[in-house]
Amino acid sequence: MKVNLLCHTPEPEKTIAAAARLCYSNSGADELFDGMTEEKASSYVAMLERLGHESPLEHVTFTFTIEGVSRAFLAQITRHRIASFSVQSQRYVNKEGHFEFIVPPSISESEEALAEYNKIMETCSGSYKKLTDILQKKAAAEFMAEGKTEEEAMKLAEKKAIEDARFVLPNACDTKMIVTMNVRSLHNLFRLRCCNRAQWEIRAVADEMLRLCRKEAPSLFAHAGPSCVSEGRCSEGKMTCGKPRTELIMK
């Protein structure tokens, strides 16, 4: 797993503070940043948090690159719908020779489980290659029959072949993506996915995203995290793990 912060809205805390100033004062658009020091920006951010006024947080976005994660992770992260995703396509990218897979810790810790897991991955990889070869030959013949040169036919046929061969690729198959979220959506992500009850892979990614966000905008994310961090109580009810994530609380 590799998570990087690619870029973010310049001066994120001041931008949100300016939006808040517009809401709560007579300041004109040209005056929003007048005298806006870091201390004043932090004060505005804290005020918004006390009031529960979250809409100004939507004016700032953070963009991340995420690599070395599974397609199972992709299914979870895209449930956060107020976000933008650009994901490596299995329709256009041939995974033959590049088929890497993510191994869950519970499997890697068991020699017997890992052996079975690796065997299944090898079978999937082999089946993907065989299907790609079969489908590519079939499609190439059809394209040449239409008058395409052999080179043109093979190129078109590869794309058509992997489009259907990808159906045998497992959830473990690696992927990479660029994700952009506004601060309000990020707080929601951290509340749900930094929780001990979240699945291990998305929790690890969310923890790293939170670390990177706090480095760039500490006031905005000072109390971000699962409800045991952001609210000082667990919102999971009888499903609580009983173990507050105190390591996420900013000192």
Structure, explained:
With 251 residues, the chain is an alpha+beta fold. The protein has two domains: 2-87 and 174-248, Gyrase A, domain 2 (2-Layer Sandwich); 105-168, no CATH class. The chain is built from nine helices and four strands, in the order E-H-H-E-H-E-H-H-H-E-H-H-H. The chain has helices at 12-24, 38-51, 71-77, 105-108, 111-145, 150-165, 183-193, 200-216, 227-230, and strands at 2-8, 61-70, 84-87, 174-182. Strands 1-2-4-3 form a four-stranded antiparallel sheet. Helix 1 (12-24) packs across helix 2 (38-51) and helix 5 (111-145) runs antiparallel to helix 6. The protein is flat. The mean pLDDT is 94.
The coarse silhouette is flat
Alpha-carbon distance between the two ends: 27 Å
The CATH architecture category of the largest domain equals: 2-Layer Sandwich
- What number of domains? 2
Number of helices, where a helix is a run of at least 4 consecutive DSSP H or I residues: 9
Strand order of the largest sheet: 1-2-4-3
Kindly report the CATH topology of the largest domain. Answer: Gyrase A, domain 2
Structural class: alpha+beta
Radius of gyration: 24 Å
Question: How much is the average pLDDT?
Answer: 94
> Which regions contain 5 or more consecutive residues with pLDDT less than 50?
none
Largest sheet: 4 strands, antiparallel
Beta-strand percentage?
Answer: 5-15%
CATH class membership of the largest domain = Alpha Beta
Classify the helix fraction into a percent range.
40-55%
**Structure summary, number of beta strands:** 4
**Order of helix and strand elements from N to C terminus:** EHHEHEHHHEHHH
